[in-house]
Structures are given as structure tokens and as C-alpha cells.
Design brief:
By secondary structure, the protein is mainly alpha-helical. 51% of the residues lie in helices and 9% in strands.
Length: 305
């Protein structure tokens, strides 16, 4: 083979590698958009996936896991509730407590999510967390009833982060708990509902103030906005600025984003157009790019001089 042919082959190989990376990132982005659309069906979970992903990334990194694992777990945190697409709206968005039968329906979402991922090229990266994030150390979780170290690390991390976000987020029947109260609940359930190692570490991180920038936010530096009736339920996209039209997904009130970054009620119901779910593509693309870059850097072999 001539030198010019060798160079051409190397260039083609690099181009193929770049194309494959871009293809994988596009596949991941499509998964994140799907998860985003599922989340939007519940008016009280705006930003939940982003927050769980961020909590899980912080916790995994503090636990000393390899950076490639940290990024994989962050992706899994964003996708953990994918199976809720199979839960009826009447149950998913119910304003009060669930009946036993309704809770049994909710408990099917991990298996639904796992089945959705079956055969997907990225399934192996996140399937364990999607299927097992509601397992508990005492064996009383679902859907498999696993206990202790039989529960994969990513599922243990996301399980405690998922619960922490649920407690510190507003619901139709209560305000979001203070961080300290949520941490006390986790502390009282270590080794039972929550993994002792990761639960204790989350409490330490929380006490250090390292989770405050994520709590009640839907993106970096963008807090959830408050509806005067429903509380902090309004998600502001990163491309929305003063004068942008917003809507409360719960009461369907119409709002305008003010110059003070607050949501101002317009004394009317939102139009169908204003209520349309629009995934924040810039957030998704930034997450995918960041995860891919950090994952690639962490798996790149070291060059020995």
C-alpha cells in the first residue's frame, strides 16, 4: 500500500469514527426527547429528569466512581422514568393519593421502560437503572424484590436521588420539603428503603450545599417558576426571555415571563399553542455533548511519553 493510500485509509477511518459518534449522540438525543415528552404528561414533575440526572452525577462522582461510569449513570438518571409512557394520565396526574390498585399500575413502569429499551443500541448502558431504581435494600421494592448488593450500583444511586427530588419538589397536595427534612427522612430509612452508603453520602453532600443549585431547578441556573395557584410548576426553556409566553401545565393558566424572571399571570387560560410541549433542544443537545465529551475523555487511553 502506498503512503498516500495509507493516509487516505486513516482519514476515512477517522471520518467513520466521527460519524459513528455523531450517530450515537443522535440516538441518545432521541431517547432524551422521548423521556422529556413522557415527563411532560405529569404537570408536577417539570425538570425532574434533569434534576435526578444531576443529583446522580454529583453523587456518583463523590463516590469516586470512574468518570465513564459517572456519565453513564447521569444518562440513566435522565431516562429512569421512560416507562411512565404506559401509565394512564388519570393515574399519572392524579392530584391526590393513589389507591392500592392505582399504585399497582404505577409499579409497572420499570418493566415497561425496560421493554421499551429492549433491542435498543444503547439499552445496555441504562437498562439496569430503568428496571431496578425502585428496588430497596430490605427487599421490599419492585419489580424484582432484590435486596442489598444484588441491586446494581446505578439503580441504588438513582433510587435515592429519585426519592430526594420527589420529596423536595412540590405536589398538588403539599409544598416541596426543605432539603434538611428530606435528608432526615433518608437518614431514618438507610439500609431499609435507601442504600446506606449512597444515602449517607447524599446527606453529606446536601449538608455541604452542593445540591442547592439543582433543587427546584429545571436547568443550570434556571429555577422552576411559580404559578400563583399551583406553586412551582412552570418550566422555562433556556431560549425563553422577558416577554415570552408561558403556561402552567396544572391549572392551564397563561403567564408572561417578566424582566425580573418571574411568571406574571395574564388573567386567562393558556391557548392550546401555549400548552404545547416543546422539548428544550438546547438543553438536550448540551447534555448529550457534555456527556459524550467527558465519556470519551475518560475512556481515552493514556499516552506514555
Amino acid at each position: 500500500m502506498t503512503p498516500s493510500a495509507i493516509v487516505t485509509t486513516e482519514i476515512n477511518a477517522d471520518a467513520i469514527g466521527i460519524a459513528l459518534q455523531q450517530h450515537q449522540q443522535a440516538i441518545l438525543a432521541s431517547l432524551l426527547v422521548s423521556a422529556w415528552m413522557v415527563e411532560a404528561r405529569d404537570p408536577y414533575t417539570g425538570g425532574h429528569l434533569w434534576r435526578v440526572s444531576q443529583f446522580a452525577m454529583i453523587l456518583a462522582r463523590k463516590a469516586g466512581l470512574p468518570e465513564a461510569e459517572v456519565q453513564r449513570i447521569a444518562v440513566a438518571g435522565f431516562l429512569h422514568d421512560l416507562g411512565k409512557i404506559g401509565i394512564p394520565d388519570a393515574i399519572l396526574g392524579k392530584p391526590g393519593g393513589l389507591t392500592e390498585e392505582e399504585y399497582d399500575v404505577i409499579k409497572t413502569h420499570p418493566r415497561i421502560g425496560s421493554r421499551m429499551l429492549a433491542g435498543h443500541p444503547l439499552a445496555s448502558l441504562v437498562d439496569a437503572a430503568v428496571l431496578m431504581h425502585h428496588e430497596m435494600p430490605n427487599g421490599k421494592g419492585y419489580p424484582l424484590g432484590l435486596s442489598g448488593n444484588d441491586i446494581p450500583i446505578d439503580a441504588r444511586i438513582i433510587g435515592v436521588c429519585d426519592a430526594f427530588d420527589a420529596m423536595t419538589s412540590a405536589r398538588p397536595y403539599r409544598k416541596g420539603m426543605a432539603r434538611e427534612q428530606a435528608q432526615r427522612i433518608i437518614d431514618n430509612s438507610l439500609g431499609q428503603q435507601f442504600d446506606e452508603t449512597f444515602g449517607r453520602l447524599l446527606i453529606e453532600i446536601g449538608d455541604a450545599g452542593e445540591l442547592d443549585h439543582v433543587i427546584a431547578h429545571s436547568d443550570e441556573g434556571i429555577p422552576l417558576l411559580a404559578c400563583h395557584v399551583c406553586g412551582p410548576t412552570i418550566v422555562r426553556r433556556s431560549d425563553q426571555h422577558a416577554g415570552s409566553q408561558l403556561a402552567c401545565p396544572s391549572c392551564q393558566g397563561a403567564f408572561e415571563l417578566g424582566t425580573d424572571d418571574q411568571a406574571n399571570f395574564l388573567n386567562r387560560r393558556a391557548t392550546p399553542h401555549e400548552l404545547e410541549v416543546v422539548p428544550d433542544r438546547s438543553v438536550i443537545n448540551a447534555l448529550v455533548s457534555d456527556w459524550a465529551r467527558k465519556y470519551e475523555m475518560s475512556t481515552r487511553p493514556e499516552v506514555v511519553a
